[in-house]
Amino acid sequence: MCCFAKKAAPALRCISPKNVFSNCDDLMKNKTLQVCIWILGLSALIGNIFVVLLRLIIKEDNKVHSYLLTNLALADFLMGVYMLLIAIKDVEYQGEYFKHDIEWRSGRLCQFAGALSLTSSEVSVLLLTLITADRFKSIVFPFHFKRLSFRLAVIIVGIIWTVVILMSVIPIFELEYFYDKSRGVGYYGRSAICLPLQLSKDKLAGWEYSVAIFVVLNFVSFVFILVAYIIMFLTVRKMSRSIRSTTINRESQMAKRMAFIIVTDFCCWMPVIIICILSLNGHFDDPGNLVYAWIAVFVLPLNSAVNPVLYTFSTPLFRKK
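RE: above sequence
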């Protein structure tokens, strides 16, 4: 109501409720983040399309590794689509966002955008966990287990996509648990950017679901990845050069290349996990919500824009050049 009053009578003094991302005029009130979301969105979209096409054209010896990286690129591509959807809507509503706020946050497109973001994030995390587990098995237990076959990789990746898509669409159904009656919006409509991150002490509808996915699941995944890489490093270091097989050398080199991708994802996700835990305990103070806005719009999607470069340089053809 305050936004309508200001437009009708500009001289009127009226204080609008504080919002993390938007104000009366803009869906994305921070001008720097407006630019960032376009840059990151286009980079993720174009870069990951390039990676997928590159891996379809160039046939690598390790089909399983190439297949997993292709799926990682597809997951990051979805993040690019999500960011551009938000950026386009920001431009569309520019100057009069207050007229469309409830309609946008309660609409199907916002729910679709939120589901895209969740799918992209979680498929990426689980695929990195799978890749790490495969490298771990090959380096630490080279003679105890069979290598991950292409057929099994397809089945596991299919399960990952199916489970995560189900996780992302469940909140779209009109279940009372996910609906915020006081605000008249659903799970994805809790913010203007349709992202259900739990980065404040306010426990909105479905907050436990967010914590279970973005904190518990991701924390367990990254702890496993961290421990696995430490063990792999120590295992390779203990082996003398004379007893290292060609296979182990090849696997360790591949693990080193993948480490760059995993580190970027780790650096993007750990601040989210830590801040979420601190916020829930009331130990994180962010009066202007600047940290929340930057993490949600810049830090979290950053790896989707950077990963295509890392994927490219993990391709044998480009390494040789």
